[in-house]
Design goal:
This protein is an alpha+beta fold. Helices cover 22% and strands 24% of the residues. A hairpin with a 2-residue loop joins strand 2 (36-39) and strand 3.
């Protein structure tokens, strides 16, 4: 008859479960205020240049560039914009998801209006379903830039 050793309950430990939760946004990652529109995908809030995340709008000197800018001006005029900052940088600008006071996503509104394209590399295709049927054909320079066939103005 063999002896069985009993383990004392005090010596056994329950397994450790590690849960990784995304960090909660802190006030230093949120900017709110009136904005100044630079172009169709860039705004300035409190002196911070912000690239609107997940979209690509035409440059001002490209076809549809000024229309895209003015569409964004009309959306933001007199509104308090909330920018949820990301850790990314894009050509010396912070990247952020930007929202109107009623919760509408500025990027989604620009794509829906046909003034910007979804940029799947950065959005994961979040806005593609909102693109107007002719948007990529009309904004061929922005589409070419996304495919790496056209360098951004800031690199020239």
């Amino acid at each position: 008859m063999g002896r069985h050793r009993r383990r004392s309950r005090s010596l056994t430990r329950p397994p450790v479960v590690v849960v990784h939760l995304p960090p909660e946004p802190t006030d230093d990652r949120i900017l709110r205020g009136q904005c100044w529109v630079v172009d169709g995908d860039t705004i300035v809030i409190e002196g911070t240049h912000i690239r609107i995340a997940g979209i690509d709008a035409p440059e001002l000197d490209h076809p549809w560039g000024k229309k895209s800018k003015w569409a964004l001006v009309q959306m933001c005029k007199g509104q308090t914009i909330t920018a949820r900052l990301r850790p990314d940088l894009s050509y010396d600008r912070v990247v952020a998801e930007c929202f109107l006071p009623d919760g509408r996503d500025l990027a989604a509104e620009l794509v829906r209006a046909g003034m910007a394209l979804d940029w799947p590399k950065f959005s994961g295709g979040k806005y593609r379903h909102l693109e107007t049927p002719d948007a990529r054909k009309r904004m061929w320079r922005a589409a070419a830039r996304q495919r790496g066939k056209l360098r951004p103005q800031s690199e020239i």
